[in-house]
Amino acid sequence: MWGRVIVGLAILAAVGAALAWRPWDPGPAYTDARSARILEYNFASPLLDRVLEEVAVLPPGPRKRRPLLVLLHGRGSSPSQRTSDELFAELERLGPRAPAIAIVAGADHSYYHDRREGAWGAYVLREAIPAALERTGADPRRVAIGGISMGGFGALDLGRMAPRRFCAVGGHSPALWRTGGETPSGAFDDAEDFARHDVFAAAESGKPLGSGPIWLDAGSSDPFLDATKALAAILREKGHDVQLMSHPADMIGVTGAGTRRHTCGSTLERWSGAGCASGAT
Questions:
Q1: pTM for this structure?
Q2: Sequence ranges of the domains in the chain
Q3: pLDDT band for position 222 (50/70/90)?
Q4: What is the mean pLDDT of residues 166-175?
Q5: The pLDDT of residue 77
Q6: What secondary structure does DSSP assign to the chain, as a single string?
Q7: What is 2-276's CATH topology?
């Protein structure tokens, strides 16, 4: 019953599989938007007291109350880097089933959670998503959230914070650690910050990470694969609807064009079957 939002989360996989990790390149990664409308705008956040670059994508075809996929980028990246020719090809292929997409800025290493430097989690929930809904005209009852690496962690943590807000949550190679001592510099302020946003502890306590399916994937040589599998196992044990996929590639590193097309196509074929009829409340 979650089809249209799952389509959006499948597109999340297409985005991640299609793009190499390239923080050194500030430009967009596409050459043909295939009639999709790209809205680039500067958003002045009162919560963060800063102006952020945001990107929204409207699929080709009539503007209507489509689902909204909120996409969170990886560390050292930016919203403009999360677009690709594969993404626009899949939006075109999906036609009326394609969601609107909001690519939300997270700076270099906010990890999309409230911390000393700013209320990054609250900004996504209270500012960025309402702004994207207004600009895209998407259905506010059918909002999914997903991300790659840093953004994958952020999506899961925001699903923990506001489970009724999202009808599906996805993490593509999510940056997950079992202990604060495993985390790289900049990911969290200190041990207390890590504990406040410990998605493993939340899962083990039975707390939901959204009101619908949880979609996870990682590459077979991905450094986060073991942690992603462990989180999926905990969530399943607690009775949550979790889907886990692993691909024969490093989901963060560079993959070949053929692998990207295969991953993109097969993932979309698998996940475009069932629809988000009513959405989150």
A1: 0.86
A2: 2-276
A3: confident
A4: 89
A5: 87
A6: -EHHHHHHHHHHHHHHHH----TT--S-B-S--TT-EEEEEEEEETTTTEEEEEEEEE-SS------EEEEE--TT--GGGG-BHHHHHHHHHHGGGPPEEEEE--TTT-TTSEETTEEHHHHIIIIIHHHHHHHH---TT-EEEEEETHHHHHHHHHHHH-GGG-SEEEEES----SSGGGSPTTS-SSHHHHHHT-HHHHHHTT--SSSS-EEEEEETT-TTHHHHHHHHHHHHHTT--EEEEEESS-SSS---HHHHHHHHHHHHHHHSSSEESS---
A7: Rossmann fold (3.40.50)
